[in-house]
Amino acid sequence: MTEKLKDDERGTLVGPLLATGWEMVEGRDAIRKTFEFKNFVEAFGWMTQVAIWAEKLNHHPEWDNVYRTVNVVLTTHDVDGLSALDVKLAGKMNSLAE
Amino acid sequence: MTEKLKDDERGTLVGPLLATGWEMVEGRDAIRKTFEFKNFVEAFGWMTQVAIWAEKLNHHPEWDNVYRTVNVVLTTHDVDGLSALDVKLAGKMNSLAE
After folding, report:
1. In whole angstroms, how far apart are CA A33 and each of A18, A62, B88?
2. Per the domain annotation, does A21 fall within a domain?
3. Which of A42, A53, A66, A74 to mutate to test the interface with B (most CBs of B within 10 A)?
4. What's the complex ipTM?
5. A93 CA to chain B: closest CA distance, Å?
6. What GO MF terms are annotated (chains A, B) (predicted)?
């Protein structure tokens, strides 16, 4: 069962993400990051890999794309805030973009 | 060479799109439409088909996705407004969503 991250988990789980370009969204318990790629094919190719993981985790991003740029927001609607699923998907997005 | 749509072309080319759920964007020479699908797999599957067409036409949408919803804005940055490419991609998006 997914639960909202507790205060101590935020330091240990969200902290490391903030060192990789993720940031807290103002006014929401959510994280965001902008991913830039070489071109549209690279950007959408990355989105496609992420999409398969998102479906597999049953946890989906809010995201927009304009050519080679993808903006992502992650939060867990079921718990009205950040959960371990957001941390997992954020880490996966980072590694797929490397 | 891509050119901005002329006034008479707007009636004949953009008019029919407005009858299929596309609308003018306020304050921009652009069109927008929200596509709703059954679930994320259907939504992203459609996006993937559109992405291949977009790359083939070398004309890319501004779009965002949250689960089964995709919001699209089309305009042609090179001509700072709507061109025949937007009309073509909008029609393709409609037919792929049918």
Report:
1. 9, 11, 32
2. yes
3. A66
4. 0.95
5. 16
6. 4-alpha-hydroxytetrahydrobiopterin dehydratase activity
